[in-house]
Batch of 3 targets.
Target 1
Amino acid sequence: MIKPLLMLSMSLSAALSAQTTPTERAAAGAVLRAIDSLQSRLDPRSMAIRLANSRNTDRDRLLARVGDYWDGEMQALSDYIGTHPEVGWNEFKSVDTLIKVLRGHGFRVETGIADLETAFVAHWDSPAGTNGPTLGLIAEYDALRDADGPFHGDQHNGQSPVAFAAALALKEHMTTERLPGTIRIYGTPAEEVGPPAKSIMREKGVFEGADILVRSHSSTETSRGAAGFGICCLNINEVKYTFLGRPSHQLTSWNGRNALAAAVRFYTSVDGLRSTFRPEASIQGVIPEGGIAPNVVPARAVVDYYIRYPDGVYLEHITRMMDDAARGAAMATGTSVEIDRYGEYRDGITLGTLEELYFAYAEVLGAPRLVEAPQRPAGYEETGGVSHDIPGVGVSVFSSHGTYHTHEMEADGLGPIGHAGFRLDAQIMAGVLYHFLTDGSFRAAVREEHRTLKGLFNQYQENLKTAYAAEIGLTPPAD
């Protein structure tokens, strides 16, 4: 048995590793200690091991049915979507197929959700009533963009069938056992293309009423996050800079104003700024528009950037400086610039209660490539914001030897490695939802942890503003 002092030490070590930069760690100090105290009191690891290893014939029957649904129909559905890839906002064939499957299994489906053509919500209410929890599952289906055409190099083809397998088995179980509650499946398009669909859906209130959300995703390992704040791919600002000039024949170029020259000057200025930013910054940009014909002065050019940093406060500082560089490039070339921040991704909330239960089931079910140490918190969906409203977890069992966004990962998603990982994802998601549905004490622990961490997140943001104030010219918050 682990001694309490050692357990506290291990928990604090995991929490400290959750923050990337020295400034984050300094700003989060008191917050991390509060998170550590909460984790010590809730003891989610022990709770998870007890639940996942308990003798429970109802639960075991449920997980077996998830496997039956995957083997009988959902694996083929995953392969179909995988071999008919469609990029974000254009997943019409995939969505049409998914909706037909859901309606065939008794779900009521609303389409065009949040004014997004390829978004949907599927509903099922238990015959025993709806005064139980509302169980939400996120389903994705968009493919990656590539010069050779779309491809499922992030295995989004499996994510909807995984959710369906878990939902259908739960639907069957709730009907048989007369358990009240509701199941909702959220079809969320364009995970790989901004602006983030889940943020749009959140702003429209689509997720309101859900008590928990679960999703799956491809992975090169089986790991879980530490409790706390984070996001999978750093905080991101998606910003498009459109330079507008005046056309002219190149032989009389002085009559024009060269938008491409402004864009190139700006692009070069950003490279020059890199040394003034903290080293954890990651800034990637392309020039998707630079003119039409060599003999015409370009009147329009576009620079599209993904600006990333481990926390959102310093990210705003980077973005402000880049915005100023764009305005300077426009002034220097006699052009104008329009700045469109079309997407934002911010830290989400990761719950130890749900992460540990997912991982305990991964252990019990024999998931491969288990990583024992908790990793940096990553929320459970890529926008961060939804996890502030609703507790949830992302299940990511090892499903590929190839890294993300590659044809190797696509091939594994259509073969035995991906199929096995997806099957486990579905069973684990169903296991987590089963306990949330049937165990009041577990449900209360999840809700308490989410409520507490949400309050601590606001404190963490204020601490970051204070820590960065002198460096980036912020006015420190009033005491």
Target 2
Amino acid sequence: MPRQIMIVDDEKNTREGLKWALESTGAEVFLAENGEQALVKLGNLPVDLVISDLKMPKMDGMELLTHVHEEFPDADFVMLTGHGTVETAVDAMKKGAFDYLIKPVNIDELQLLVDRVFDQKSLKQENERLRREVDDKYGFDSIVGHSAPMENIFEKIRQVAPTKASVLIQGETGTGKELIAKAIHFNSNRRRKPFVAVNCGALTQTLLESELFGHEKGAFTGAIKQKAGRFEVANGGTIFLDEIGETTPELQVRLLRVLQEQEFERVGGTKPVKVDVRIIAATNRDLKKEVEAGRFREDLYYRLNVIRIDIPALRERADDIPLIANHYLKQFNREHGKNLEFNPKTTAMLQNFHWPGNVRQLRTVVESAVILTSGREIQPKNLPEELRTEKIASGGVKLRVGMTVEDAERELIKATLADFQGNKAKAARTLGLGRKTLYRKLQQYGIEE
């Protein structure tokens, strides 16, 4: 699409000359004799740039600039001025003009300025596109779910995102902890700054310390130059510490200092490095139990646990499974050029499966099914064998292939309690457990009374 430019000048020779110069570059040029005529035409034409003389009858360039700025904010504005009115042109830039040119206009300068206007406009449009893409990917709509537990999580994200508070996210592997962390960051006032994710369980503690805090030249063998750590990279933004429960007590002391003082030293260094970083931590462990067991520092736990978000396992929000499955189906249909739908029996099978790998496993299953399905519908036969095979224990408790022992015990306790209408004494006797043990397991598995 050609560049669309309006020239506003009461001198015909100037208008025609600028038009000729700009049309030679492929631009579409419109003309107006004064500000009033320009405003009428702007209301009917898609103009990207207005180039206007400063001194004109009826409505001068400054007044036109004010109207364009208010009524056509997407249009840029360049002022034409004589040598004696440069001060006024500079004032126009303060009021929103992109730049100014001194008359008589040098054609090369004009074309360079117009190129600069449109280069900046393209950059702005690209930034807006990327921002929309980020919103689509990390906004609330990207976290699929309408169940009560997920609505509670959405509300917590809305409340905590604008603050500086540290957040602790707990949930099983594959439940989407990083997605929640990104939603918090990209809905906060830090969204234009970095989001830096670190998996604390993927590195040895020595490497993790260097990765987080950086190191000085010569700090250890192989440290041939100074390196900035992830905390420095995340300055002004958010650092996401995944699997925080895997860190050693020594490293936990350093993390505590960053939380309290917002400063640290690089490995091998003595000079404090100041940062402004929000910390979001995540774990698949129960950190409170880790504290009680002496494996996690209590003071760090309370500094991280200002706001806690517990993500339910997928099996605990079965109503969301069809929504999530269809979300991924649309995504993989686009990627693989298909137009598949789920057979109702397939949807039921997905909803009834136990999903030990949670949302991550469901995503993999849907992608596999899209690739392997040749018809119009994804049939049960297109799903992995573990989804099509389940064992049923006597008493009607479903024990699915892929369940952990803890998951099986949870289902057995829930079913037994249901059989005895919530009578814990009878349930405990039937299960061969002491009442205190049953109460502990109810708390451990989050089974409501």
Target 3
Amino acid sequence: MIKKGMIFTFLKVSFLLFICAITLYPFLHMIAVSFSANLPVMQGKVGLIPIGFNISAYKEVFQNKMLFTAYKNTIIYVVGRTLIGLLVTSCGAYALTKKHMLFHRFFSLMVVFTMFFSGGMIPTYLVMQKLNLIDTRWGVILINCVSVWYLLLMRTFFSSIPKDLEDSGKIDGLQDIGILWYIILPLSKAAIATIGLFYAVAMWNSFFNPFIYLNSPEKYPLQVILRQIVIANDMKAIEYAGEDAAAMPESIKYATIMVSTIPIILVYPFIQKYFVKGVMIGSVKG
């Protein structure tokens, strides 16, 4: 006799496998197309396995001289944005946990206010211009470097840490900055790793801000350069007639997606042990 628990487990596993399949299929399809020959791509015969193994799409992408400079710029932006974002987020979140802080309610309301209202693109651009941050790497790193949503999540996580630990730190002579550095942050590795990953992924995928605030090609991040590669090959498809015109731009589009996606995916295994705990931050308050 089949138990109800076994039926539920079977349905649960089947549902999760289905979600995994529909999630992985587009990714595997793009990999297959990017490594396939032109004719099968044009005929729409490529599924999950490459047909007529061909790396010409990747050759086309990596022939761009600015690609490796863009990789370097992107790494600088990602590291800078993540470190500054985590620093400000941690300090701000810890300050908001102190209800005895002067003007605590005012600062809390002001932080939440920015989640719903903003100055808009033109006022932001004018502010960046006044601060001489246009066409600078600091401009890309500093603009929107803190997410209010992540700050509130971090505040909730910090609030769940027992107050007795902070009191013991004060007895040992620690000030607020010492308590944050020596007690709170070491106990918040899961939250820091998770929010740091979110900051890094957001910066890695950022296109609009660098496109608006940067004018020098040597400062462009990866996403802007890849856009130029895709547009250049779309124009090539218009200029030429025949098999290459129909197939190569499609293969190059998928190859550019792989080039921009694989590096950031490789980061996940290194923080997986923290990520499982970190995704639950703010869900339960002790």
